[in-house]
Design a protein that fits this description.
396 residues, 8-stranded parallel beta barrel
Length: 396
Amino acid sequence: MKIRNKGRKIYKTKEKNYYGKSPFGKFMSGALSVLLIGGLGFLGYSVAEPIINYTRKAGDEEPSASVTETKEQTESFSADVTGNSVDVMDNISVEQYKAASVRTEDMNSTESLAAALERVPSDTEYISVPLKAKGGGIYYASSVSEAGLCGAVKSALTLNDITTTVKAAGFKPVAELSLLNDSIFPAAYPDASYKIADGGSMWIDDALENGGKPWMTPMSDVTRSYLSALGDEVAAAGFEKVICGDVIFPPFRESDLTLLGEEVKKSDRYLSLTSLVNSLYSKFISGGTAMMLEVSAAELLSGGGEVIQPMVLDVNTLVLNVDFDEIGQSVTAPDTVYEFSGTAKENAEKIIGLVKDRLSDYNVVVRFSGKNTEQSELIKAKEVISGYGYSSYIIG
């Protein structure tokens, strides 16, 4: 199966500077200046390449061959410096991003969406709308034929309906896309699913009688084509920003890894995740839309978050989702169990403190969510972010 993208022609541009340079970038700039002033100019070619790679975004020219040849000489220097210099308290965004999110049930009509917008906090500037949700449902009238054929489309709202309604209410629209937590598309198009190594049948995450379902794999061309086609629609729709989430592998058990074979057991499997993100990142910024990557706080605490690879990931802003439903009363990590028995505000402060070091190379937006948590409690929880040097947030 081949998915044909019919979107508008894309012209390469550089990403707008929505957020400030990361602490690592600021430190390396300062360090380079000191070296040059001290007369250590002979190190210029040694340090130039990692700095270029770190700051270069999609659309920039490739570094010259002479710089590329020095990579092996400089990697140890870069690792030694960054390991002792990144401070999360410096990671404050130039732009204070104040947003609220609507839910999938608000996406049934322009009337239900407008009603939801009346309930958002008064200081909100951006509204985040779920266009592709966890599970694979698509909450707009997608013209991608495979989306309709597999039964993923759940709303008759057009993208223009959505952006017009949000703007009419005085907000800036932001799109949300859950990428790989999708059981609808691979059920209809098995080539997008994980396959059992012996025989090639479709893998599901549990027995059928227990609600087992397939997942989309980032290692499939069918998956990448489908997500790219959806991305084309969203990129042309006039959203201020896009948040891509659920760039994850399923919670494989050891028995699953044995069934699925080497492809999901190799140490660099994360490259399939970062490649997917980078391709969408290039698509969105080429159209002038900033892209953020959402990661789960609970997943990070439990040892996940494989997509966070600063040396190969182009995205420079992460949305840390503190989902109180997902956190629950405890989160199990490889060596311990973390308990969360306080208020939403107390639990948020605890979990952010535990995972903040994983985020030190990025600008950070903190999201507070959970269907079983009152909005007033979510708003109180956001008060803790300033203590970690963050100023941007999403409620809901």
